[in-house]
Amino acid sequence: LNSPWNKRGDMTLPEGVKNGEKSILEVGAQEQGERNVKTFDLTAQEKEWEISEGKTVNAWTYNGTVPGEPLRVKEGDFVKVNLKNELNVPVTIHWHGVLLPNKMDGIPGLTQDAVQPGESFTYEFIANDAGTYWYHSHQHSSEQVDKGLYGSLVIEEKEKEYEKDEFFILDEWAVDQDKRDMSNMGGMMQGAMSGDGEADTKQMYDTFTVNGKAGSAIEPLKMEAGETARLRFVNAGYQAHKLVFPEGSMRVIANDAEKVVSEKNTSNVLEIAPGERIDVEFTKQTKETAFIGQEQSIENAEDMMIPVVSENNDQAADQEVVLASGKETAKGISYGSEKPLFEDTPDPDVNYDMDLSMGMNMGEGMSFQINDKTFPETPPIQVKEGDIVKVTLRNTGRMNHPMHLHGHRFQVNSKNGEEFENPIVKDLIHVKPGEEYVIYFKADNAGEWLFHCHDNNHADMGMVTIVDYE
Ligand code: C2O
Ligand code: CU
């Protein structure tokens, strides 16, 4: 059967494997079978990182670069990653979006102990499901991801569809120390007061990056006129970004590792929420340098600009940047997933109403809440294996909440009471102020899984709950 459930393959660990202490390979060679084993070593280490000429930050990295070492494997590979921690704080690696056994999810205090300075941990999983992923520390994410502990992971299809295939991770930095020292709280209060969902924590960030570089330090993408490529985008930052493409040059082909069907070129603006990943098919239309860049309406937009250059173009690199103007679709999400999880609206076994808001905690100041509680007091989503779970996410606050579910994908059936004609399957949904989404998922991967806001500040201040299997 062509069911999306099946593509996940076997996700349970063989008996005797606990917390990755013992290798799956040691326990049962049969697990490995005919599979290719891809082994990577990632060392968490401190590094002076140059964002652009004269702009340097003290970063925390996997293998000395921001983003960390790019990982590429093939569908069906057995992936083994040795994490070594050379920082003086504990870290982990979370495999964002990968459907894997709970023990490999990298959540300190839930699925493993954080990896202490000087210690190591080996992650192992089968790369069942081709698509775009990323990895990042899940220990104090608001600090560690912010300082650079993230990287890309691609699970390639057995038959590659696009010869040219590139990865771009978007992020924001506070390079200016004075701004950085301005308390995070202050920035957020300001955002909250202004009532602008976009304002939020953002005031302290003064530099935008693409693959760890800003402005003219961004490596140009090389493509000839008429060439088509797959471009994979991930937002590792706190702020939603809107990338503008030359008109008629792109179409969305996947969202959170799920392939989508979309009309060609209905829009040339790509909005990516924090934590989200979107793949597009992009065609270079002419030999003149083209630009893909942050929509110009916000501060520092010019940092986030990818030049697309052709080898046999006589124009020099320092030509004036001309960004196409943005044309957005009226409805926002304009595509559905190729393989929905449910044909018809299912009958749920579990109904969970998730109210997202901001609040004040006595003595602690601001907090971010699910159903008026902060984690770990938030009510868990209690499920049994096989349950169909319905979650209604409602944002009653004034800030954006990109909500991300670990270990599963969900189908987004409606927005503000309006059913989608073609539902989309995702693992992160950007819930903006006043919005309500209804999602469904199947409890098919036992364990304890986080469901949290991917604005990591909000998560660290309480906007987290757990999908808990009976
Ligand atoms: Cu990017 Cu809890 O995840
Ligand atoms: Cu949030």
From TrEMBL:
Keywords: Copper, FAD, Flavoprotein, Membrane, Metal-binding, Nitrate assimilation, Oxidoreductase, Periplasm, Repeat, Transmembrane, Transmembrane helix. Residues 364-468 form the LTD domain. It catalyses: nitric oxide + Fe(III)-[cytochrome c] + H2O = Fe(II)-[cytochrome c] + nitrite + 2 H(+). Pathway: Nitrogen metabolism; nitrate reduction (denitrification); dinitrogen from nitrate: step 2/4. Its EC number is 1.7.2.1. Gene3D superfamilies: Cupredoxins - blue copper proteins (2.60.40.420). The keyword Transcription does not apply. It is an enzyme of class 1 (oxidoreductase). InterPro entries: Cu-oxidase-like_N, Cu-oxidase_2nd, Cu-oxidase_C, Cu-oxidase_fam, Cu_oxidase_CS, Cu_oxidase_Cu_BS, Cupredoxin, Lamin_tail_dom. It is found in: Periplasm. Its main location: periplasm. Pfam families: Cu-oxidase (PF00394), Cu-oxidase_2 (PF07731), Cu-oxidase_3 (PF07732). Its cofactor is Cu(+); Cu(2+); FAD. Homotrimer. PANTHER family: FI03373P-RELATED, MULTI-COPPER OXIDASE. Belongs to the multicopper oxidase family. This is Copper-containing nitrite reductase. It comes from Rossellomorea oryzaecorticis.
